[in-house]
Design a protein that fits this description.
Elements lengths: L1 H16 L29 H28 L1 H4 L2 H9 L1 H9 L17 E4 L10 E9 L7 H8 L6 E9 L6 E5 L7 H7 L2 H6 L3 E5 L17 H5 L2 H24 L6 E6 L1 H12 L3 E7 L5 H7 L3 H11 L6
Parallel strand pairs: 4-5, 4-6, 6-7
Antiparallel strand pairs: 1-2, 2-3, 3-5
Helix pairs in contact: 12-13
Length: 326
Amino acid sequence: MSRASVVSRIAHDACEKSPSIFPEGRRWWRDLPPDFPDKEERFGLALRDRVQVGASAASDIVLRTIGASLVGALAAPFGYGPKKLREAMADRDFYGPMAESADATRFFQPPPKGVWVRTRKASRPLFRPKDGVCNDLSFESPYVPANPRERKDFLSHSANRIAHARHWRHQDGPRPTVMAIHGFSADLYLLNEWFFALPWLYKMGFDVCLFTLPFHGKRQTRFSPFSGHGFFAGGINRINEAFGQAVHDFRIVLDHFESVLGVREVGVTGVSLGGHTSALLAAVEPRLRFAIPNVPVASIADLVQEWEPLGAIVRRALDVYDLSLE
């Protein structure tokens, strides 16, 4: 990975030194045209690349459609009623200055050091390497929501306070490690072993790890009708804090790899909701050798409005109560 990391660093430095295409002192999202999500971008890709990207995008559309129906029917009553929307609008004064500051550390605080991570042999993994081991990792998340209004409800979900990941590593490690983050409601390890081509990455010499997002899998809320329900069901503020916890807990796994296992090179990739998380990590975590967001969610505000029937409910509530997401 050393060669790739050098190339990536050069490209990153060049990007940082390039002049901004937006007015000085303004954030890029303030200058996007209202119809930006409707515009198509064309990329010059080879046939094989177009097929691979198209397949990823198609799977994301399927998951998004299923997710929209489930969230719209089962999450809207809990998190997108008039009271929750008014709270979210009021809390723009809390979250807004953090975003405008362009200082990611104001919201994404580093986790404490020395968090104990439990390691045990994985139960029934599909991929079982002969020259390595597959372990399940878990630990109690010390994350506390940044927004005081959200803390009591957020921390009341006990299952979500235990973070989970599955780790495949070579016996002669440590090796450079690729961490993968699943999409919305798509946390099954067996599915993601195939989706992220983890056996292939392992055979290429990498250790690999699947990270479970908050409110997914074993982290689901009590009486959750489907995996990931709690990520959106608590409303807009819950979404903010769920991403905060995702970044926080991911960094604890990274600390564990570095301090306990001696891993020195780690990169991350993710799809859809996991792609968005990967992009957030790229802005926060300097130890990452690469971050590859795959068909990531680019705008949560637009996503919520585009997910039908949830979008119709939110737009109607905004109109009735004379509110705006702008």
